[in-house]
Amino acid sequence: MPRGLAVLLSWTGARSKHLRAHEEIWHRIGFETTTVMMSIDRTFFPKRKTDLDSVVLRVRREIEGRERDGSMLACHAFSNGGAMMMMTLLDEMPTLNFDVAVYDSTPSRWIHPSAAPFVIAHAGLSPRDAQRTVARHVPHAITATIRSAFAHPEPPFGNFRLLRNPRLNLPRPELFVYSEIDRIISAAAVEDFASHRESLGCDVRRLRFQDTPHCAHYRGHQDAYASAVEALVCDAERNRDTERARL
């Protein structure tokens, strides 16, 4: 029987091949994985205009099976796209609680709909595809920016703000992986959120690198990254078993 299920939530614009090495981290310690790719459309367009509802339903079915058999549930979120998807799952599944969470290169202090062109420019698209994608997203970015003056953005983008809500994002053991040279989300922003989570009672671990760019920490430090994930899981599992033994 698998040790648990790890839900991997990609950064905006990632491709499946980019997450395979991270999936292997979990496979090596006995977890099965399910992965959600956060495309540019899924990140910036309201979910009512994308296929995100069907994605949430798929993940819900996989998670509900794990909740019934009592195995561990882990969340591994990459950048702000992954973090907002994490909160979308928690918002739509009120009984869901991940046993552990890994935050890779996230979160920033705030996000804004007007950032869409910047994110698209850094998504690794060809110049032609980037131009076309920006052209599709600019009208919504303008509308969402105006709307943000008097209302929160629609999900999933608008769910990013829920990260700091401890009634939804419950305290748990958490690992933050980040870097001094990340030019997209600063180390200071990640540390600010990690300290906030610590103040809520989370068991927070920090893995801070000096030389790896955004969402590329595993590529540069495979052993340290994998060891930190395994230690997080082992300690959480041990604590959970101890609590159960007391009941």
Main features:
247 residues, alpha/beta, Rossmann fold, six-stranded parallel beta sheet, 9 helices, 6 strands
Q: What CATH architecture would you give?
A: 3-Layer(aba) Sandwich
The assigned structural class equals alpha/beta
Major sheet size, sense and barrel closure? 6 strands, parallel
Shape: globular
- Unreliable spans are none
Helix-strand string = EHEHHEHEHHEHEHH
User: Looking across the biggest beta sheet, what order are the strands in?
Assistant: 2-1-3-4-5-6
The mean pLDDT is 93
CATH-assigned fold name:
Rossmann fold
Give the CA-CA distance, first to last residue: 24 Å
Q: What is the helix fraction of residues, given as a range?
A: 40-55%
Over the alpha carbons, how many angstroms does the gyration radius reach? 18 Å
Tell me the number of structural domains: 1
State which percent range the strand residues make up: 5-15%
The count of β-strands is 6
Helical run tally: 9
- By CATH reckoning, the class would read Alpha Beta
CATH superfamily assignment? Answer: Alpha/Beta hydrolase fold, catalytic domain
Structural commentary:
The chain has 247 residues and is an alpha/beta fold. It has one domain: Alpha/Beta hydrolase fold, catalytic domain (Rossmann fold, 3-Layer(aba) Sandwich). It is built from nine helices and six strands, in the order βαβααβαβααβαβαα. The protein has helices at 16-28, 40-44, 52-69, 79-92, 116-121, 127-147, 187-199, 217-220, 222-246, and strands at residues 4-9, 31-36, 72-78, 100-104, 174-179, 204-209. Strands 2-1-3-4-5-6 form a six-stranded parallel beta sheet, with helices on both faces. Helix 7 links the parallel strand 5 (174-179) and strand 6 (204-209). The chain starts with a strand and ends with a helix. The mean pLDDT is 93.
